[in-house]
């Protein structure tokens, strides 16, 4: 009789660990037979697989030693020192032996094995046939979800099918080609989508479970990545066999059309919509979407009860937060004006002596800047946050790690990390705005640039940007594919800031060598005697280094040594 420790213990393909398993034998004496002969425990096993769905968000964001956002041009790491996760990434010292995010490899395979075990045992579980069919579809969606993170980080990986490996098995599988992995996931998601209900068909207590729309949206993301420069003929290797493993070996515009079609399927489903409220205040819907667990925009999310998660991670010192992932001036400059025009446009109305006036409302809801209003627990009211040099509250220091900004994205400005109030939110892992951006990007790359306007206009309208006489919300008419590409990439950066996208986007677009090599920008604000301010853009104190091999992360050396048939990524 096998103990559950054995059932849920594969990290990577070959190693064993289960300290976070809900069926940990340290606290239970459960076995395969006792779990899968009981309907409640069988369902609980599926919920255990769900519980890791936000692992990239958690491990890439909440870890106190840094996250992937801080390895980009969007954020700076609060701390200094060596050996920290963020330092290893932004300094370019990452290697197969010091890979800082081992969970990016281990957690997916851990849960893929759990799915396979569930699929093996479910036929004999005491559940109704319809319930079993839905659980199978949910499990297949979850397996695709975990596989897709492996593809994003590493390229093609070993596909284990429905096989349940035992702890004593020697697992020496080669990596499947990138194309085979994508085809497998698309097929899995299509078949799961045919069984799963729409989100509106679920009862309230099941809100957040896998849906038909979630399958289609994940398919959209997978196909968008497959069409992107890194994975569409952009492998950083001359080895033909390895090129097939890590990408589609030759460029094909058809990949973009597949991605556009997949996104359009979600849009045509009518299952989701943007959370819009420009009546309360311009762009208020963009702010509220992250503070309401139940809303029409969330597609895939991590359920959370009343919490101060975001505030604890992002709030400035006076609000009791850890003020991690501090926004850069680079990101601030990416936000257009309220008329939708870039600050570099001479007709935009941007004033460098008053740089925060009349900006895209998403800026106000994403960045805490000098004199921003934010809840202060000691006053039980909103008070100014001061970020000018040596300000008495949260000011800039020339020698420190501060950028002159703090993140407000996804935070509730009416609570703080050190307050007693909480917000009933979910962590957004995929929302409808991403699908609109997926479609705009993909359809533009097919050459049908005119079709990319509508989703961008919808996003900018929801953001509270003014329409203008031409109703283009600051977009220029008749843009070329190249001009539209830059607009879409910037729109994605602004709309999805701090939502676990930028690190992956700059890699898949193959622009990281340009944007993440050098010093990020920060803002030094000097308060003058007459209470005006002088603004000086300066370099950050640390240099970011990105090497070509970093476009794909290294498979941890310990895993490659256990499975010699599994080739390491190019350059590692």
TrEMBL record:
User: Which keywords accompany this UniProt record?
Assistant: Cell outer membrane, Membrane, Signal
Subcellular location(s) of the protein: Cell outer membrane
> Does the keyword section mention Nucleotide-binding?
no
Top-level taxon of the source organism = Bacteria
The record's InterPro entries line, in alphabetical order, gives: SusD-like_N, SusD_RagB_dom, TPR-like_helical_dom_sf
Please list which residues make up the signal peptide.
1-20
Q: Name all SusD-like N-terminal domain ranges.
A: 38-224
The RagB/SusD domain extends over 308-572
Which family, according to the similarity comment?
Belongs to the SusD family.
- This chain belongs to the protein called RagB/SusD family nutrient uptake outer membrane protein
Q: What is the lineage of its organism?
A: Bacteria, Pseudomonadati, Bacteroidota, Cytophagia, Cytophagales
């Amino acid at each position: 009789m096998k103990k559950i420790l054995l059932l849920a213990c594969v990290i990577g393909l070959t190693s064993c660990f289960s300290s976070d398993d809900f069926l940990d034998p340290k606290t239970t004496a459960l076995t395969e037979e006792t779990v899968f002969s009981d309907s409640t425990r069988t369902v609980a096993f599926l919920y255990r697989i769900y519980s890791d769905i936000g692992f990239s968000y958690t491990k890439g964001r909440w870890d106190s030693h840094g996250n992937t956002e801080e390895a980009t041009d969007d954020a700076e790491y609060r701390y200094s020192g060596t050996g920290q996760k963020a330092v290893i990434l932004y300094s370019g010292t990452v290697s197969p032996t010091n890979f800082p995010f081992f969970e990016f490899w281990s957690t997916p395979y851990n849960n893929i094995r759990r799915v396979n075990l569930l699929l093996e045992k479910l036929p004999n579980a005491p559940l109704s046939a319809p319930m079993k069919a839905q659980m199978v579809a949910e499990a297949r969606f979850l397996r695709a979800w975990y596989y897709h993170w492996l593809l994003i980080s590493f390229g093609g990986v070993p596909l284990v099918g429905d096989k349940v490996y035992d702890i004593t098995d020697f697992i020496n599988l080669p990596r499947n080609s990138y194309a085979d992995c994508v085809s497998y996931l698309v097929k899995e998601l299509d078949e799961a989508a045919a069984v799963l209900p729409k989100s509106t068909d679920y009862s309230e207590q099941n809100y957040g479970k896998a849906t038909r729309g979630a399958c289609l949206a994940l398919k959209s993301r997978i196909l968008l990545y497959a069409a992107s420069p890194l994975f569409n003929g952009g492998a950083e290797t001359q080895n033909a066999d390895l090129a097939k493993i890590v990408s589609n070996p030759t460029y094909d515009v058809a990949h973009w059309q597949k991605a556009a079609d997949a996104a359009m399927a979600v849009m045509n489903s009518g299952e989701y919509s943007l959370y819009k409220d420009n009546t309360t205040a311009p762009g208020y819907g963009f702010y509220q979407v992250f503070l309401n667990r139940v809303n029409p925009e969330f597609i895939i999310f991590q359920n959370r009860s009343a919490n101060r998660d975001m505030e604890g991670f992002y709030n400035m010192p006076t609000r009791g937060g850890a003020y991690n992932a501090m926004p850069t001036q680079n990101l601030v400059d990416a936000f257009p004006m309220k008329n939708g025009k870039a600050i570099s446009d001479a007709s935009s109305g941007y004033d460098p002596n008053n740089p925060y006036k009349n900006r895209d409302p998403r800026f106000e809801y994403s960045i805490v800047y000098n004199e921003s209003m934010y809840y202060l627990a000691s006053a039980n009211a909103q008070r100014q946050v001061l970020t000018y040099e040596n300000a008495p509250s949260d000011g800039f220091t020339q020698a420190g790690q501060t950028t002159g900004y703090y993140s407000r994205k996804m935070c509730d400005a009416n609570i703080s990390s050190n307050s007693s109030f909480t917000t009933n939110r979910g962590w957004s892992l995929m929302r409808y705005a991403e699908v609109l951006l997926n479609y705009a990007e993909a359809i533009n790359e097919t050459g049908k640039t005119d079709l990319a306007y509508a989703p961008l206009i919808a996003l900018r309208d929801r953001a509270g940007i003014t329409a203008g006489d031409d109703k283009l919300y600051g977009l220029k008419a008749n843009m070329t594919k190249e001009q539209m590409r830059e607009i879409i990439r910037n729109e994605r950066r602004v709309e999805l800031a701090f939502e676990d996208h930028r690190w992956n986007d700059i890699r898949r677009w193959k622009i990281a060598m340009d944007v993440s090599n050098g010093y990020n920008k920060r803002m030094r604000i000097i308060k003058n005697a007459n209470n005006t301010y002088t603004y000086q853009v300066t370099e950050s104190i640390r240099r970011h280094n990105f090497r070509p091999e970093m476009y794909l992360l290294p498979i941890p050396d310990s895993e490659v040594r256990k499975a010699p048939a599994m080739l390491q990524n190019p350059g590692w």
